[in-house]
Amino acid sequence: MAFCNSSRLRLLLSLNKRTPSFTSSSFSVSDFSWARMFCSSSVQSQFERVGFIGLGNMGSRMADNLIKAGYNVVVHDVNHDVMKKFSEKGILTKKSPVEVAEASDAVITMLPSSSHVMDVYTGPKGMLNGGDLIRSRLFIDSSTIDPQTSRKLSVAVSNNNIKRGRGPVMLDAPVSGGVLSAEAGSLTFMVGGSEEAYRSAKPLFLSMGKNIIYCGGPGNGSTAKICNNLAMAVSMLGVSEAFALGQSLGITATTLTKIFNSSSARCWSSDTYNPVPGVMDGVPASRNYDGGFSTKLMAKDLNLAAASAKDVGARSPMTFLAEEIFTQLCNEDHGTKDFSCVFRHYFCGKDELS
């Protein structure tokens, strides 16, 4: 009990240090009741039933890992076939997001776009429209969306708390690692929101991932994700351009790879995810750019980065050029190929025969 009281005191003293995009009234009632709630027993017992909305390639595997970790999972997706697969495994399914929120202690969403996220949370059948029937105390959005939408959603959750005098908290927690990491439970989570909520949610994250990084206040997880993917895109463009230029000037990409990887040009795009077919085994370039991280998803993430850069007036020439290049690849019907196909289809690089 002494620990619980000291935790409450620290929380109340920290309210004045909250992210400035929120008013103090947004937290005065709900954060205190939330702190009381998380001062009891174990996190496993606090989140006995976990909702999961969005059962695509990533979400279905993340939900499976929660099930393996011993959580009682309830799911929803607009795809009835995938819902049927979970139902056949004995997993509880619901017809709408609000029904998931009414049946779950925590809800995780993994959705394609910002508009899908807002609809699931604030639409006609959205989770925040359940009123006093809402059971969920924690919402985690792992979708890759723009930081502005993540922050808007956090405000909506806070306002919902004020109206009810109690309610859930919100974390934005996009992931890195792709389908293979989702299946293996080795994802990286980039988490934005209340640090207290982050600590309490950590066992949930560790059921689905290996690296859990707290990024700061609301929207910072989404910011981290789009910045990471921007750097990844620009790196791949630079490496691909250099390889293609080297080939044109008479040096093989295999030789350049050895040079890059033992000098200052070394990076993930050269030593781990090489874009030149024939240079490295086990990467998308070795299988005609099938699998991996699709060009259309990279274009989408760059669009988010470009929109965010415009919103804050940042000077981001590489962002807009990268967005233009990957969008062009999509328009030329390469959208389903791994984004490293930019080496072949934009820079006209050549395969290297062994």
UniProtKB/TrEMBL annotation:
Enzyme class: oxidoreductase
Lyase as UniProt keyword: no
Keywords, alphabetical: Branched-chain amino acid catabolism, NAD, Oxidoreductase
Family annotation (InterPro entries): 3-OH-isobutyrate_DH-rel_CS, 6-PGluconate_DH-like_C_sf, 6PGD_dom2, 6PGDH_NADP-bd, HIBADH, HIBADH-like_NADP-bd, NAD(P)-bd_dom_sf
Residue intervals of the 6-phosphogluconate dehydrogenase NADP-binding domain: 49-216
PANTHER family hit by this protein: 3-HYDROXYISOBUTYRATE DEHYDROGENASE, MITOCHONDRIAL, 3-HYDROXYISOBUTYRATE DEHYDROGENASE-RELATED
Protein's name according to its UniProt entry: 3-hydroxyisobutyrate dehydrogenase
Species: Rehmannia glutinosa (Chinese foxglove)
Lineage, top ranks: Eukaryota, Viridiplantae, Streptophyta, Embryophyta, Tracheophyta
